[in-house]
Each structure stands twice: as structure tokens, then as C-alpha cells.
Amino acid sequence: MSPITALPALTLALAMAACAQSGDGRQVVAANGRVASDAAGNAPPVVVTAPTDPTDPYEAANRRVLDFNFAVDDAAIRPAAVLYRNSIGNWTRTRIRNVLNNLNEPAVAANSLLQGRPLESAQTVLRFVFNSTAGLGGMFDLEQFGGPPRLERDFGQTLHTWGLPDGPYLMVPVLGPSNPRELTGSVVNGFMNPINYFIPFGANIGRGAVEGLDTRERNIETLDEIRNGSLDSYARLRSLWQQHRDAQLGRVTSDSIDVLDDPGAPAAR
Where is the signal peptide (predicted)? Predict the structure, then answer.
């Protein structure tokens, strides 16, 4: 996701026009997904009266999982990401990211082949060879010097190509937004990469942890804005994830995402 530009704060009156407030001071989300704060401007815990999106029938449970994820993030993941950013320079972080991306290229090539794209698969194999040799183990991405460009192909996309439907939206503990197809694809994708079988189990776990840390570091400001700049951070995160995944699956004509879109905000008239 691209960094999200700050949203202007919306007035309490506009939020109250779209929501109802329960007698015990808890926050109620109406069918349109909008939320209200109390008189002091605080945002109490969300209580969902009905799903706000037809693709999200388990919204009440998903919101509780997101609350858990935010608690884990506040306690451990975000502080680790900030420490990673402050202790390791951008040049070194980029080299680490390039190596991690390079190690995933065999899985990208395999998925391109399974999706009926043999030329893309061959391009990715060539990219892997170039970056692993001339790029010093993948530390340097030769795309900037005319090498084959990086593609994003995973088994979730492959299952989509084969016609498997999305299924309901899911908020997965620690991992975040997903759905049954994408969750299955994430698991299978790890087994598809032949490199993983030559790396000790502990090293693979460490590699996954570093990948997660790198992703979190690159999205510190983005997630801060989602949490602090949205009337309903859950609905906004769901919307952004779905838009981003639709772009990767080719269901929209552009990769650009309207990051200013806040599903919790009143619709423009």
C-alpha cells in the first residue's frame, strides 16, 4: 500500500448523523459502516449490529481479531519495526529486501507457469539468475540497469486464475486481512519454493520474520494514518486491502488505489 495522505477530521455531528450510540456508551456501527464518538470525542469499542459489507459476513469476529492484532502490534511489532528502521540504514535495509525478494523468485516463476504465462516464467528465471550472480546474491536488483523487471505472482493469484472464488473476508490473527483462497495460497506458496527445502527450518522461520519486519517498517506511517485518520479503521483497512488485491488480480484497470477513501466517512453529496 502506498503511504496514506492525512485526512481532515470530520465533525461529530456528521458522524452522529450516520450512527446510533448505545446506552452503555459503546460504539455502534450501523449498516452503512459509519461510527460515532462519545461527547468527549473518545472512540469506544465497536459493536457491530449488522455486517457492513456483503463480502464480510463474519465482521463482528473479524473486528475482535483486529483489536487483538492492534494490541500485539502496539506491544511488540511496531516497536520492533521502529527499532529496525532507526538501527539499520536505508541502504542496508534495501539490500536485505532485495535478497528476500530474490529468494522468492522461484515461487514467482512457478506460479507464472501455473497461470499459463510461460514467457513471464522464463523472464523471472532469467531475473533470478542475473540477480543471484551479477547482483551478488540478490543484494542488487539489476532491473535498474536494464535487467528483467520484477513480477508479483503467488498461489492465491493462481487459484483465482483457476476460477476459485474469494470466499468471505477474514481478519487473521497477526497476519491481517485475507480470505480463504488467499490464506490457502499463502501456505501453499511456501511449499512451492524449492529454495526453502535447502534452507534449515530455523533459517526459514528467521527469513519469514525479517520479511514481516521489513513490511511493517515500510508501512509505519501508512498504518498509523489508517488507525488515527479514519472514522472506522476496520472498514478502511478492509477497503484498501480489497482494492490492492483486486489490482494484483487484474480485476481493475489501474494499480493506483484511492488511499484517501475512508469507508467510515459520510458520502459526498
Answer: 1-20
